């Protein structure tokens, strides 16, 4: 569980066991299909128990159970398979009795395109798996399940019509044997869903680049529920953006590290110690040895220039990411948006003008909110003070 290799390893194990079991069966199995660990077999009725014993004998840790057809019907994955009199198989969409029928709710904090995709793909699955149902029966199933998840009736009708139209287009293309033209390489990226902003960015990117953008929400289960695992100490965290304040002025240093934070801070301490050793040996800032150390980081450069001391024992983590490739852009954003940084301005030279504009807007928005909050607090204080004076005056009279 949790390992990206687990599904592939599980599938390989199942393939190996299935090959051995099929070879052990003394007659050819008329029909067999596998999906991960679910098997669908057609067997003579008097051979079912024998085949089950042969399958269970391959590995004592893996035991198979059997579900027989009832009234020529058998559920398999999201379908019910029906065996007709002519031995042909037709299918219907199937949902387990214990299923609540809940999926992405229409009132959730996801983008509208995600909700539409969920509804469309659900409707497409129901149509695809229902080979022996009339269209009105299929539409009734789709409408009922989407209403459970608060999708409006008008939107459900749009989804159903869209699925029908897409099916007709696919059938027409197959009959004409048309091949989809090569549209070139498309880049896929994800973007946090921000109402009123994300869609504008997506439209701009679509006009300029062959890019497909998928929006995502930050309101995840992991953000709501407390973590089950023990929290990793800040010193042991990696792929982070960190901030170190200067003890002698308002300046601060912002940096990034792909290694553990304590390893990176140890490097800063080593640079400061080397600077101190050279100073004690009589070297000045114009000497080559000190110039070489000052070029390593803006932190040690500020220390050498102003004889200031940074709070290396009080490092703050500003942000973290699972992708180390995101660190440079995150660092540039924090340097750009943080006042009084000692970082060199060249650290933000590679920041695209689009990001710079957005960060400037965010800074102005934060400043406006802070000013409004301060004015509100002042008004509350004045109101409370006035109430006190009136009360005192009334009491005196």
TrEMBL record:
Pfam families noted in UniProt: HTH_animal
Sequence ranges assigned to domain Reverse transcriptase in this UniProt record: 1-98
Full protein name: Reverse transcriptase domain-containing protein
Organism placement in taxonomy: Eukaryota, Metazoa, Ecdysozoa, Arthropoda, Hexapoda
């Amino acid at each position: 569980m949790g390992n990206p290799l687990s599904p592939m390893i599980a599938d390989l194990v199942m393939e190996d066991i299935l090959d051995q079991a099929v070879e052990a069966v003394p007659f050819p199995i008329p029909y067999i299909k596998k999906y991960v660990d679910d098997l669908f077999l057609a067997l003579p009725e008097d051979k079912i128990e024998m085949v089950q014993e042969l399958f269970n004998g391959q590995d004592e840790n893996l035991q198979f159970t059997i579900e027989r057809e009832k009234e020529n019907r058998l559920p398999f994955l999201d379908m019910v398979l029906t065996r007709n009199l002519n031995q042909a198989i037709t299918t219907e969409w199937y949902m387990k009795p214990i299923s609540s029928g809940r999926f992405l709710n229409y009132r959730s904090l996801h983008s509208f395109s995600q909700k539409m995709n969920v509804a469309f793909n659900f409707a497409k699955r129901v149509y695809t798996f229902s080979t022996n149902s009339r269209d009105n029966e299929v539409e009734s199933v789709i409408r009922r399940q989407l209403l459970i998840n608060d999708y409006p009736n008008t939107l459900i009708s749009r989804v159903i019509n869209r699925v029908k139209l897409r099916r007709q287009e696919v059938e027409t293309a197959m009959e004409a044997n048309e091949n989809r033209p090569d549209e070139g390489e498309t880049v896929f990226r994800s973007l946090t869903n921000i109402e009123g902003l994300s869609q504008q960015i997506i439209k701009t990117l679509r006009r300029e680049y062959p890019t497909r953008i998928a929006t995502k929400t930050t309101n995840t289960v992991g953000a709501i529920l407390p973590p089950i695992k023990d929290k990793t100490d800040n010193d042991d965290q990696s792929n982070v953006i960190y901030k170190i304040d200067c003890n002698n002025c308002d300046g601060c240093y912002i940096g990034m590290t792909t290694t553990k934070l304590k390893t990176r801070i140890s490097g800063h301490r080593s640079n400061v110690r080397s600077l101190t050793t050279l100073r004690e040996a009589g070297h000045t800032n114009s000497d080559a040895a000190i110039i070489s150390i000052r070029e390593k980081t803006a932190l040690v450069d500020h220390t050498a220039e102003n004889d200031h001391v940074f709070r290396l024992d009080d490092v703050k983590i500003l942000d973290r990411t699972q992708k180390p490739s995101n660190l440079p852009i995150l660092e540039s954003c924090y340097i750009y948006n943080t006042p009084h940084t000692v970082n060199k301005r060249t650290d933000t030279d590679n920041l695209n003008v689009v990001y710079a504009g957005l960060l400037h807007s965010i800074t102005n928005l934060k400043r406006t909110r802070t000013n409004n909050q301060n004015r509100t607090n002042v008004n509350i204080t004045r109101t409370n003070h006035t109430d006190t004076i009136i009360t005192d005056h009334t009491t005196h009279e």
